[in-house]
Write a structure and sequence with these properties.
430 residues, eleven-stranded mixed beta sheet, three-stranded antiparallel beta sheet, 15 helices, 21 strands, 27% helix, disordered N terminus, disordered C terminus
């Protein structure tokens, strides 16, 4: 996958004042996004709709009429990011799809190129409406006509699908959350009870601490674990995940859209957090002031890690043009799940899942750490090893009901049941 871009292109090429049309407005960008979504139902070729790359905007003339100058700027500025292929030094450049680029224009708009303020309900409502409309379009039987061009556009391998005959899918959304054959994603080191595996076919970044995540990748000013989980800062859950380790799996639209358990564990409660529908592209996540992970709609699943008895949080984050988050095996409290077992899926679009581990529960694989600190994403598939639980650990935890910190060696016995009780209780924000 050799890159066509020059060597001076950064790992994450961002939206900036110099590559925005001078007269762009929120209204024009909103009309352009709405037009793209409507166009989806009118054409068979997805590469001429929301999946068009920004540099091919000339195929969609109404867009540069709505946003003058967008075509020439898209040709000049390669907005996107590099990704490393796991197990090699090979890097390839992923251009930002046109719908995501327009979504970014909605965050940088107006003659003064002001950033979107938190209270702009007009823009928020428009993003929600377009995401819901796209979901309805791809739920319709007429959307079947898009599947063949989608497969061709992204060079998808049908042989690994449980149902490889694309004519058997009832709509485009059914193809988005397609299932794979049982042996398509084997779990590496499946016999090692300390193993932690990739939760999704995705672009992955990992950080041993929240501070490192904020230093290298998540630049939102308000990003904290309590905000991500939607729990009070002084709650037992917040204390349990104090300075947690994070694995951030970003799914692109073409990816297999079911997500799987990164650990051997037991399913606990889920908590839905309503929110916005911002794009989760690296350009937004890396931008100071944009709190996409803590602002977007999301669903939080708590699990109990079999090896340590400690809770692990699994956060499925919605995004621009993502229809919904759906839990399958992750939706029934008490279910025992093995590493690599399905937890749920996203309907239409690309998005993100974030695994949140108490400090010390996971030591991430060194190659992933090096890439993430560069920072650059690593292309992984479900089941790939991403780390393990250290043999000797001093995992801080919180005894349910006391807030008192304990070390792992002291809690793995009697407090396991207390932690399971914590996972089974509703917190005050539910």
């Amino acid at each position: 996958m050799a890159s066509l871009h020059p060597s001076n292109v950064q790992n994450v090429e961002k939206i900036a004042l110099s590559n925005l049309p001078a007269d762009a407005t929120a209204e024009a960008a909103g009309a352009a996004l709405s037009g793209l979504v409507d166009h989806t139902s009118e054409v068979d070729d997805v590469s001429h709709g929301i999946h068009a790359q920004a540099h091919s905007i000339g195929h969609i003339p109404y867009l540069h009429k709505l946003i003058p100058g967008l075509e020439s700027l898209a040709a000049k500025h390669h907005i996107g990011n590099y990704v490393v292929v796991r197990g090699s030094e090979e890097r390839f450049f992923e251009s930002m799809p046109i719908y995501a680029r327009i979504g970014m224009h909605l965050l940088f708009y107006g003659k003064e190129q002001e950033k979107l303020v938190e209270g702009n309900s007009k823009v928020h409502n428009m993003l929600r409406e377009q995401s819901e409309k796209e979901g309805r379009i791809f739920d319709s039987p007429e959307s079947k006509k898009n599947i063949a061009s989608f497969v061709k556009t992204y060079n998808l391998q049908l042989g690994e699908l449980l149902e490889p005959d694309i004519t058997k899918y009832g709509c485009m959304n059914e193809f988005f959350y397609r299932k794979l054959k049982a042996d398509a994603r084997p779990v590496q080191d499946a016999g090692d009870p300390t193993g932690v595996c990739s939760a999704a076919d995705s672009r992955l970044t990992v950080y041993q601490t929240v501070d490192l995540a904020k230093k290298f990748w998540v630049k939102g000013d308000q990003f904290t674990i309590p905000r991500l989980l939607d729990v009070p800062v002084d709650s037992d859950k917040a204390k349990t995940f104090d300075n947690a380790s994070l694995a951030i799996f970003r799914l692109a639209p073409a990816d297999y859209h079911r997500f799987h358990s990164p650990i051997d564990g037991t399913v606990g409660e889920t908590h839905h957090v309503p929110g916005q529908y911002y794009t989760v592209n690296p350009q937004a996540v890396n931008e100071p002031g944009f709190d996409v992970f803590t602002a977007n709609t999301r669903s939080v699943l708590y699990m109990t890690h079999t090896k340590t008895g400690l809770p692990v949080a699994f956060v499925a984050v919605g995004a621009l043009l993502v229809g919904s988050v759906n839990w399958t095996n992750g939706g029934t409290p008490g279910n025992a799940v093995a590493r690599g077992e399905e937890l749920g899926y996203f309907a239409y679009g690309g998005s993100t899942v974030i695994a949140v581990f108490p400090q010390g529960v996971v030591k991430f694989d060194e190659d992933l750490v090096v890439n993430s600190n560069e920072p650059i994403e690593t292309l992984v598939k479900v089941g790939y090893s991403i780390g393990h639980t250290p043999a000797v650990s001093t995992v801080p935890a919180t005894v349910a009901g006391t807030g008192a910190p304990k070390r792992r060696s002291a809690i793995l016995g009697g407090v396991k049941s207390g932690l399971r009780g914590l996972l089974g209780k509703k917190n005050k924000s539910d």
